[in-house]
Amino acid sequence: MTTTQPDPAAGAAVKAADRAHVFHSWSAQGLIDPLPIAGAEGSYMWDYEGNRYLDFSSQLVNTNIGHQHPKVVAAIQEQAGKLCTLAPGFAVDVRSEAARLIAERTPGDLDKIFFTNGGAEAVENAVRMARLHTGRSKVLSTYRSYHGATAAAINLTGDPRRWASDTASAGVVHFWGPFLYRSPFHAENEHQECERALRHLEDTIAFEGPQSIAAIILETIPGTAGIMVPPPGYLAGVREICDRYGIVFILDEVMAGFGRTGRWFAADHFDVTPDLMTFAKGVNSGYVPLGGVAISAEIAATFDKRPYPGGLTYSGHPLACASAVATINAMAEERIVENAAEIGEKIIGPALQDIAERHPSVGEVRGMGVFWALELVRNRETHEPLVPYNASGADNAPMAEFAAACKERGLWPFVNMNRTHVVPPCTVTETEAKEGLAALDEALTAADAHTV
Prior knowledge:
With 452 residues, the protein is of the alpha/beta class.
């Protein structure tokens, strides 16, 4: 692995320029302390002080193929030498090939691909397509969800990041999805949770008026909100409800797609085909911004003679599409999706269960592939979260201490509210996974100190 020699002066210069000019997302600008990163490769990144971190966050759960994969880097360089950019209205070989490779892997007849720059724009356009296709306006989405930060996507989002921008006028209705550990339905098992969640959804539809609802959008497996794997039968039940009322079913696979769960798409685990599917992140591991919507034949036909009123200057950007082609081909050739499944089943899953038995701060372990969450609690009996919902400042101290303990041990964690997510690249090796899990095991003693 290539690493740079420690150069604190260079790191200080990078940080000074950042603080002088960069406005960071989701942050109070005067309260953050961004870490200057000198480089990254595979499952690791390192700073200018010479500290190396095992990336158990995959950045924002998007570097599925790891950092600096040589085949993807080479493809970007080759495409840059050939054709850097071209407007979306032209036919370009690399754009067509990226669309073909994606369509080959999407379920059912999701064979037309509309490219965007990322996941939020994919959600925006999927919702627009659903509304135009149905002639209806309302869209239903769950609490405990994240769909992006643009206008419609942030209103669809079901976590506190929505609050500052929620106008309550975007035609969005939220409902409760299944989550047995914190069941809003007082369920005692997965069967009850599924049955009651579907009944709740039907009741919501009835009171909102089925004739007014264009779409239901769900993250196939909610990501940032907690990696809650839906109970058996739930997604199939939603599909049936959508069919009965003529509602478009949208699955958001921005985080769960492209190998993260041990299948090309999380929908493959549930044998469900939506009408529209959004993707981004893992399609090219974020090497160049890219996202999109996979569209069913029926919805695509709506726009055969009628123009689709949407577009982006950089839709299907050649550099992004070249990186997607290289990523998908490398994932297939190197069995990266299969690796994610095997590491999850044989290494991560069993190790996390063992860790949970020894740490009173771990209330629940859930996930699949390289997509896992630990629910951290003060009290296992009551399920009281380690920190309050949407905690900040002093209230969030236990999670901050846990995150710091991870970093001290060379592990870069993904933390959100009272959870830590175990989401390394899909390329993670058995040795790397065990290294990270050992560091996580040690760091959890910081969380244990706050249990009762």
